[in-house]
């Protein structure tokens, strides 16, 4: 029984990580995948959201207000970056975002009166840190069940749409019977969802704070995903796509391209700021070194892997990324051929190799659309 709880606890950690990275990457996907804005410093927005949430809750602000303020400050940062760079070429935006991310990290590292410096921020209030009764536990399990059903529906719908689009491009009529590749992907995603749902149910029945945080992160991911899906399929989202493809056409149609870019950059930054709150809650203590450029690299991996311009692909990319992370953490030490530092470097090297193969075999990602690929602009 103890081993079952230990396994479920590790799965809860992975599910929380995948959810907060999914939110993080969805913000980047709005900027890059839908608008074509290169952001190589997206970790700066997460840092701002994490520190704002932690510091405000330490000063007795309600948690929801602290998270919203973190998102607002991240959006303001996006506004400042956008106003100074979006009129210039895209490479200037990439350079500025890298510099801003390092600037935010250095401020957090040196301004001890505000952030605690290298000592970090500790003992801030955590959400859902309580002892629920039986009926509250049952309600939490019901919410997790609904989220699992919603995730399954989203992924199956996206896979089906990919198959329809493939047949339309090939000039073939759509066959109701799904191909073997679609069935394989569907089975794999179903197994991944079940591998989270079952241990998550066990963890919620034996409630801990981490189980509650997992459920809250998954719920936030579902809300952010649903909101972005509504936005990107609205006229506003179609304008963003037109800007990504050729902003001169959008200008010719009378659209204020700079204003739409600012909206996308600010909203993407706000979403990344929300993910920072969950990152702070997961760590329970935050330090400047917690927000290294590797977090930006991980977000880009998820976007490229899942498919830029496809929100469901981002969720799938986050699941696959953390599934790979967990498997390699367990398997490589068992082989006994690599030291701990060598194993870490080897894991990153394999990720790079996978990305290289993906760029050749399927550059649009697993669920991305090749006709919307912006790399060849």
Briefly characterize the structure.
It is built from 13 helices and no strands. The chain has 377 residues and is mainly α.
Task: Give a verbal description of the structure.
The chain has 377 residues and is mainly alpha-helical. It has one domain (2-372): ABC transporter involved in vitamin B12 uptake, BtuC (Orthogonal Bundle). Helices cover 77% and strands 0% of the residues. Helix 1 (2-34) packs across helix 11 (294-306) and helix 2 crosses helix 10. The radius of gyration is 21 Å and the shape is globular.
- What is the CATH architecture annotation? Orthogonal Bundle
CATH top level assignment: Mainly Alpha
What value does the Rg take, in angstroms?
A: 21 Å
Kindly, what is the distance between the CA atoms of the first and last residues, rounded to a whole number of angstroms? Answer: 55 Å
Number of helices: 13
Give the ordered list of helices and strands: HHHHHHHHHHHHH
Largest sheet: none
Report the portion of residues in β strands.
under 5%
Annotated CATH topology: ABC transporter involved in vitamin B12 uptake, BtuC
Give a count of the beta strands, DSSP E runs of length 2 or more. Answer: 0
Number of domains: 1
List low-confidence stretches: none
- What class would the helix/strand composition place it in? mainly alpha
The portion of residues assigned to helices is over 70%
């Amino acid at each position: 029984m103890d081993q079952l709880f230990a396994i479920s606890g590790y799965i809860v950690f992975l599910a929380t990580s995948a959810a907060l990275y999914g939110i993080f990457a969805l913000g980047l996907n709005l900027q890059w995948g839908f608008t074509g804005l290169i952001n190589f410093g997206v970790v700066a927005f997460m840092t701002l959201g994490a520190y704002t949430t932690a510091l405000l809750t330490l000063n007795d602000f309600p948690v929801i207000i602290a998270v919203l303020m973190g998102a607002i400050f991240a959006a303001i940062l996006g506004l400042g970056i956008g106003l100074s760079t979006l009129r210039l070429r895209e490479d200037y935006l990439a350079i500025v975002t890298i510099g801003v991310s390092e600037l935010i990290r250095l401020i957090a590292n040196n301004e001890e009166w505000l952030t605690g410096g290298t000592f970090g921020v500790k003992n801030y209030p955590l959400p859902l840190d309580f002892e629920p009764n039986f009926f509250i536990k049952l309600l939490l399990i019901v919410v997790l069940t609904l989220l699992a059903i919603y995730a399954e529906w989203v992924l199956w719908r996206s896979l089906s749409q990919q198959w329809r689009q493939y047949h339309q491009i090939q000039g073939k009529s759509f066959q109701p019977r799904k191909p073997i590749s679609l069935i394989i992907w569907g089975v794999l995603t179903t197994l991944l969802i079940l591998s989270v749902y079952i241990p998550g149910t066990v963890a919620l029945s034996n409630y801990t704070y981490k189980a509650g945080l997992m459920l809250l992160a998954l719920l936030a991911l579902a809300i952010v995903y649903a909101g972005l899906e509504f936005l990107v399929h609205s006229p506003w989202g179609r304008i963003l796509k037109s800007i990504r493809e050729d902003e001169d056409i959008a200008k010719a149609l009378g659209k204020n391209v700079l204003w739409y870019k600012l909206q996308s950059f600010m909203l993407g930054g706000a979403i990344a700021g929300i993910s920072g709150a969950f990152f702070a809650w997961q760590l329970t203590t935050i330090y400047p070194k917690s927000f290294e450029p590797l977090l930006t690299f991980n977000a880009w991996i998820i976007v490229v892997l899942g498919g830029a311009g496809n929100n469901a692909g981002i969720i799938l990319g986050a699941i696959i990324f953390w599934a790979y992370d967990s498997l390699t953490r367990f398997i490589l030490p068992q082989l006994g051929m690599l030291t701990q530092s060598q194993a870490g470097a080897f894991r990153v090297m394999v990720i790079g190799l996978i990305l290289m193969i993906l760029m050749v075999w399927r550059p649009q990602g697993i669920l991305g659309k090749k006709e919307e690929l912006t790399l060849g602009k």
